[in-house]
Amino acid sequence: MAFQIVRNDITKIKADAIVNTANPEPVYMAGTDSAIYAAAGAEKLLEERKKIGRIAEGEVAVTPAFDLDAKYIFHTVGPVWQGGSSGEKETVKNCYLNCLNKAVGLGIESIAFPLIATGVYGFPKAEALQIATSVFSSFLAENDLEITLVVFDNESFELTGKIFAGVNQFIDENYVEEKTEEEYGAAVAEACEDAEIAEDAGPSDYKKERRKFHQNMFRLGAYRDVPPPAAASVAYEAKAAAASACGGSKRSLDDVVKNISETWSESLLRMITEKGYSDVEVYRRANVDRKLFSKIRSNKDYKPKKSTAVAFALALKLNLDETKDFIGRAGYAFSPSSKFDLIVEYFIENEVYEFMTINMALFEHNEPLLG
């Protein structure tokens, strides 16, 4: 994965480089700085840090990581918050950029960041989060690197509730039983209409089959994002059963097999070409690495995780109907009982396709990230 957000102690993260919000002088103080020194071995690290001397704000210096599960510690000096009018935001941005460029220069593959300067230096966490994700997004569009943003508490994500207040409202309005009936009950209605049975022609049979449809869907897991059997397949089978009960007939197995359309992987590659995108552009926007994309390209029957299928739909900038068809080819469907699905739907309907933004909202709601 190119980018992930985790709630953890940064000293517990495994990465080639761990970033420390350092004191400009070769001493260590409270917060993340102190925790990293303690975990790495304070005496050894301090001795190495003294060899570097003073570090200017926004700059980065490198030491071995000693007892940490990493190769390097990147020491970068953030600004003391003075209200935002003294260049603090630009300095924090430089901290992130200089660390990322240093990582590229050293040829490392993974790096873990805290929210720089948000501890004793007092930089507002909400603004630090915005700066970090903006820098990461731009950087990953041109570079391959695994970036982990480590946050320690929920306070860091208060801003997403302000920026994306519509997400919570959308969930509140749709995460209800009535939405389930609206979304999936239509399949039974359509099946009965296909069989030329109108609701007013046999309301008791119609309602009975409608209830049976929902019971089967819940029993088989289609409302719980349980892939086996795939929700899309379950929906088709339930629809076919409802059509039969209403007076229609199921398609034979031969009919089904003869009419198999392109696979998820084939659909992905076709749309990349049709939209004029490059492979690199798409897999980076989807937040997946080159190795995974190579597997997808070489296997027309590749079965992605749901989050990966959705990530590629966003990378292709598909609308909601196109997204439903696309992930359906991998055996998945959106459910109004899944917060992950509702959050993704919200952003697609609002034509927001930036994975970093969507992942922040997913993380805030404790849902799996895209990619």
| Mean pLDDT over the residues | 80
Number of helices: 17
**Count of distinct structural domains:** 3
Instruction: Give the N-terminus to C-terminus distance in angstroms.
Output: 6 Å
Under the CATH scheme, the architecture of the largest domain is: 3-Layer(aba) Sandwich
Which overall shape is indicated by the principal axes computed on the Cα atoms?
elongated
Derived from helix and strand composition plus strand pairing, the structural class reads alpha/beta
Task: Please characterize this protein's 3D structure.
The protein is α/β, with parallel strands linked by helices. The protein has three domains: 3-162, Leucine Aminopeptidase, subunit E, domain 1; 181-258, no CATH class; 264-364, no CATH class. Helices cover 53% and strands 8% of the residues. It has 17 helices and six strands. 39% of the residues are buried.
List the helices and strands and how they pair.
Elements (H helix, E strand, L loop, with lengths): L2 E5 L9 E5 L10 H9 L1 H11 L7 E5 L7 E5 L11 H19 L3 E4 L11 H16 L5 E6 L6 H6 L1 H10 L2 H18 L8 H18 L10 H15 L7 H6 L5 H11 L4 H7 L4 H9 L7 H10 L4 H9 L10 H11 L5 H10 L7
Parallel strand pairs: 1-6, 2-4, 2-5, 5-6
Antiparallel strand pairs: 3-4
Features:
371 residues, alpha/beta, Leucine Aminopeptidase, subunit E, domain 1, 3 domains, 6 strands, 8% strand, elongated
